[in-house]
Amino acid sequence: MTMPTRRQIIAAALAAPFVPSIAFAQSKTVTVALDWTPNTNHIGLYVAQAKGFYDQAGLKVQILPYSDTSAGTLVANHVADFGILGVLGLFTQRTAGADLVATYALVQTETGRLVFNADRSDIKRPRDLDGLTYGGFGSDWETALIASMIRHDGGEGKFETVTLGTSAYEALANGAVDFTLEVYTWEGVKAALEGVAQRAFRYADFGVPDQHTNFIGSSQAYLDANTETAAAFIAATRRGYEFAVENPDDAADILIAANSEVLTDRAFIRASLQALVDGNYFKSAEGAIGTIDPAKMKATAEYLVAAGILRDKDGVPLADLPDFSAYYTNKFVAQ
């Protein structure tokens, strides 16, 4: 799942005054909660703001400062109109009763991977991880994910876990742990720039369904009450991501300018964005951008239920698939 490197909390940039579009008598304010401090996953939001796409849509968009309260919680409790939702957070929170709906797929394919140091000649395939030490982040999902990859490869799925949070990357580099999970387009790119040689296993190569790692989502209550505003916001945001794909140099500069106190390494930001473009994450090879794939959502739901990760509002693991079709909509991307 998406776990970018933690940085100091900073104030997010606020949108400049906007000119109303034909669809609105006056600018509509839309608030957006981030899932972490600003990074390349969020670049389309900042591009849409800086290039006037929200302006043209009659919107005044406020990107809220990152906080330790999850974006899903802020959206479900109507503190934010939209938020960046991880796939795991969407499914677990929605299943437990939270009012969350994914409205835009930030990436078209999984950005996470299981990673280890390249000089580990003893690790050739996932089953070689049995008995080794994982530097983790404290969720049941990680254990289920890694164990299923090992078992899929013929192993037992048994390993030691040390919960380290983002310190896991340093621990991996110095050999204190044997492997961890990372986001290729963030930690993976950073490691490459720093000359840290790594090898990795892609989840989908070992029995884990390919996923949309994260989404832009809202609450059904907000979408029902603000249908036109939601459509305008998603359309303008999509323009922002399209611009970033076609103009990565300009987009990187926009993201950095909006977050200059925390994003100081342009070479890293530019390389991360290029990885997202070259890997067809923001825009698939077939041209899909923002669209949520129903087959991916179904496979993800089935996997999470089978792993015992999804629990109802009483904390009871689901025995059957939920009506996952209500967890997302392509209505606003289509418009």
TrEMBL record:
Annotated Pfam families: NMT1
SsuA/THI5-like domain segment(s): 39-251
Catalytic activity: N(6)-(pyridoxal phosphate)-L-lysyl-[4-amino-5-hydroxymethyl-2-methylpyrimidine phosphate synthase] + L-histidyl-[4-amino-5-hydroxymethyl-2-methylpyrimidine phosphate synthase] + 2 Fe(3+) + 4 H2O = L-lysyl-[4-amino-5-hydroxymethyl-2-methylpyrimidine phosphate synthase] + (2S)-2-amino-5-hydroxy-4-oxopentanoyl-[4-amino-5-hydroxymethyl-2-methylpyrimidine phosphate synthase] + 4-amino-2-methyl-5-(phosphooxymethyl)pyrimidine + 3-oxopropanoate + 2 Fe(2+) + 2 H(+)
GO BP, sorted A to Z: thiamine biosynthetic process
Entry keyword set: Iron, Metal-binding, Pyridoxal phosphate, Signal, Thiamine biosynthesis, Transferase
GO molecular function, a single term: metal ion binding
Signal peptide extent: 1-25
Keyword Calcium: no
Pathways per UniProt: Cofactor biosynthesis; thiamine diphosphate biosynthesis
Family: Belongs to the NMT1/THI5 family.
UniProt subunit comment: Homodimer.
Purpose of the protein: Responsible for the formation of the pyrimidine heterocycle in the thiamine biosynthesis pathway. Catalyzes the formation of hydroxymethylpyrimidine phosphate (HMP-P) from histidine and pyridoxal phosphate (PLP). The protein uses PLP and the active site histidine to form HMP-P, generating an inactive enzyme. The enzyme can only undergo a single turnover, which suggests it is a suicide enzyme.
Name of protein: Thiamine pyrimidine synthase
Native source organism of the sequence: Allomesorhizobium camelthorni
